Amino acid sequence: MKKIINTPNAPAPIGPYNQAVLIKDTLYISGQIPIDPKTGELVSGDIQNETRQSMENLKAILTEAEMTFEHVVKTSIFINDMHQFAQINEVYATYFDADTAPARETVEVANLPKFVNVEISMIAVK
User: Fold this and answer.
1) Residue 124 CB neighbour total at 10 angstroms
2) Which pLDDT does position 45 carry in this prediction?
3) For residues 83 and 60, what is the distance between their CA atoms, to the nearest angstrom?
4) Are 109 and 79 in contact (CB under 8 A)?
5) Which SUPFAM superfamilies did the record assign (predicted)?
6) Cβ neighbours for 36, distance < 8 A, ≥ 6 positions apart
7) pTM exceeding the 0.90 threshold for the entire prediction
């Protein structure tokens, strides 16, 4: 049976979906974009700030599900400019231990919700 995970510490969904779904010990987290959950405003300025906010939103959802980044087994990163990969990766790397980092793909896309520059989703297992 699935359990819906939602927290006010991450942005509310902007469509017909939930922040995350927990099935047994596996948590599927919807893609997070750089929205500040306190203000509802997009974080912009540079790709590192946007990546950091997306990761903090993911962290809030993990926390709500009583998990941490150590539980993450897979991430998907969607970006609109592969030239920003190194800057995104620099921020992303601060959230994981290199020896136990999850599997991942990074894909360049034409557009993302609200025309942001980065969106990140995760799968975590207890």
Assistant:
1) 25
2) 83
3) 28
4) yes
5) YjgF-like (SSF55298)
6) 11, 42, 43, 53
7) yes
pLDDT level of residue 16 (50, 70, 90 thresholds):
very high
Q: What is the pLDDT of residues 35-93, one digit of tens each?
A: 999 999 999 889 999 999 999 999 999 999 999 999 999 999 999 999 999 999 999 99
3-state secondary structure the chain: CEEEECCCCCCCCCCCCCCEEEECCEEEEEEECCECCCCCCECCCCHHHHHHHHHHHHHHHHHHCCCCHHHEEEEEEEECCHHHHHHHHHHHHHHCCHHHCCEEEEEECCCCHHHCCEEEEEEEEC
What is the Cα–Cα distance from 20 to 59, expressed in whole angstroms? 12
Amino acid, single-letter form, for residue 90: E
Q: What is the mean pLDDT of the chain?
A: 97
Q: Categorize the per-residue pLDDT at 14 as very low, low, confident or very high, splitting at 50, 70 and 90.
A: confident
Question: What distance in Å separates the CA atoms of residue 108 and residue 42, rounded to the nearest whole number?
Answer: 20
Phi, psi of 2 (to 5 degrees): -90, 150
Q: Give the domains, in start order, of the chain with CATH numbers.
A: 2-125 (3.30.1330.40)
